[in-house]
Amino acid sequence: MKRFFYTGLLISGVSLLSCKKNNKTGAQNDRIEITAITINGQPVATSVNNINTDPQIRVKCSAPLQRNAVLQSVRLKDAGDADVPLSVTFAENDSTALFKPGHQLRHLEKYTFSVSTALKSASGGSLVSAVSRDFATSIDSSRKFPVITDNALLDTIQKRTLNYFRDFAHPVSGMIREGSKHPPDIVTTGGTGFGIMALLTGVERAFITKAAGLEQVRRITQFLMHTAQTFHGAYPHWLNGATGAVIPFSADDDGADLVETAFLVQGLICARQYFNGSDIDEVNLRADINTIIGNVEWNWFQQNNQPVLYWHWSPDKAWAMNLKIQGWNECLITYVLAAGSKNSAIPKTAYDEGWARNGGIRNGKVFYTYPLPLGPDYGGPLFFAHYSFLGLNPNGLTDAYAQYFTQNKNHTLINYTYCRTNPAGYYGYSDSVWGLTASNIRDGYTAGSPTNDRGFIAPTAALSSFPYTPKESMAALHFYYYVLGDRLWKAYGFTDAFSLDVLKNGGAWFDDAFLAIDQGPVVVMLENYRSGLLWQLFMSAPEVTAGLQKLGFTFSN
């Protein structure tokens, strides 16, 4: 009997162990996996853009789900980490859960959908591993303003943008402040030149009175003649708008900036040609401008007669920056003005050997089917096609190196096509959202281009390109104004830059600042597209004609 009793216990124990082992294996076999997550039918591996504001999130699992555990195991969080309520329905024998937000989501915002291991199968098995997916909602494509004619829209853009050069004119000097967020006494030499040209546009279009435009330009010229610091006749990049003292642009850049001076002179020449009446104020203005221009010692900046111009000179650091002005970039205007100077002209050799680098300026490659005559691959930032050509008319402008309308048009089309094809995959880039140039970006500033694409679009890039790409630029203008206008269109025109890429750039970003050197070309190049006003004024100046002829250009004025 004893033997049989122990035998029975042994058999019973083996049976119990076997049951426990089988139960554990069964629980493991009941564990579930998520086999697919889709949002509005679109598979989501890690993240996805362009989701509407009332999405359906579909979670497909490897086994039927325990219904009462589902909502406890999922979360939808917005960019501020706040929970969005969810409702759920089931399909495919409860193996698929379909979630809907309890309210409309916000446009252009990041959301995170997550499922924790608290998700249970109907038989009690847990989720193998937690899952999280990010998505960004779409642009609000509704029209923000009533549709008006394109001609009225161009008037609207120019008039509003011109306000920058009135409201951000320094109260003492009349010169233009660097930016709306910069310290208020920093005024910009080049931006003031652009601003003068914008003021002339405003007078011509009756946005401001002739008396108001003349008064501001006269105040600027008086300050430049009698108060502002100069170095061999050239002005620094930044000045104190009240005292005229240099404000260093960088540690070694605390003296002359010849390129900024050229941009200023470009504007002053246009003003001299525009205010051509016999009124004493206009007569005096022209005389003052001639004095300012005549004082610039262009050839001194060859640094001991080298066949090239140098960008900077400092009274205490001399040529420490040692930056040659060599092409292709925004500086062509500097050589034209230096060659045409009455008092201190440079020789043609400085242009050919220095600026053109004995032909090294040429590119000659083809990008997106467009031949690029000059400059870096893909053309560089678009301001290369703007700053010198606020006054220089590229139509029919040709020298030994390029036909300049072709150069600027193809450069712009390369930039446009790059953004349209969007090889870097930034959300929002399209045939209506394009234009890479120097601008503010989130927490900084960069010279955007196809080879330096950070995902930030500057409205000035497409809008200042109207003379080259009117159809493409108008499409961009329509989108910026009608679709993005509630975020982008402010008191002084379009803000400096924006990014629509929520996931790559830390959320959608719309700048709240304006820069003189970006607002000015918008007004001026739109006017050159519409009437050619600034081109006509600048190209009629004798020193411009002389400079172009000396450098071997053919042109029409």
From TrEMBL:
Keywords: Signal. The keyword Transferase does not apply. PROSITE patterns: PROKAR_LIPOPROTEIN. Residues 323-541 form the Glycoamylase-like domain. This is Ig-like domain-containing protein. It comes from the Bacteria. It comes from Niabella pedocola. Gene3D superfamilies: 1.50.10.140.
